[in-house]
Amino acid sequence: MKKNNLILLRDMIVIGIAVVSLSIFMTVNFTGLYHFFVVRDHLGRLVGLSNHELMINYCHLISYLQCGWIHHWQTSLLSSSKGLTHFANVKQLIEFNNVVLMIFGILAGIVIRNRIRKHQMWQLILPVKMGLTLLGTFVFILVIAFNRIFILFHEVLFRNRDWIFNPQTDPIIKALPESFFEACFLLVFLIWILAGLGLIWYGKHELKKAR
């Protein structure tokens, strides 16, 4: 019994890391979310660009962050050395996440395949439900205290203060409202929730078939 619990814990950790990494990858690359804020809030005029020009700059930024072979952000906006250093740090984190996704995505695929083959997906139902309950609590806290959590997030991930942008030297910060980052966090959590609900659904489906 103890061995089975350790195996279940191992599988939950593998699947959990894969889901977290996948949600980050999907959110970073979902430019449609930023486009919504650009159009709704007319963000382009805050930096002296049209909304279309701002989206081009943003897409170039995402390409720079995601692609290891791109070493410079092609932007028409003024950028300071500190600002560029921060984006370079973000790039390192995102590239690390991509490596984690490749490794744990494969491992999670193997875990899920083996559990489906052995009809053991139902064992994930309870731990996933517990995880979603904790996640719901955190989402509530995030919504009511996002600013503090966002600052803490940066203080944990970055060893310098380059993430504190000066709008005069790095005007891009004026086109990246806090509401956009909050939406990004919520999208990450939404993907976690959908993945969890999918696992629960399959587990319950498996139990029904076994009856």
TrEMBL record:
The chain crosses the membrane at residues 12-37, 93-112, 132-153, 180-202. Pfam families: Lit (PF07314). It comes from the Bacteria. The keyword Transmembrane applies. Keywords: Membrane, Transmembrane, Transmembrane helix. This is Membrane protein. It comes from Ligilactobacillus aviarius.
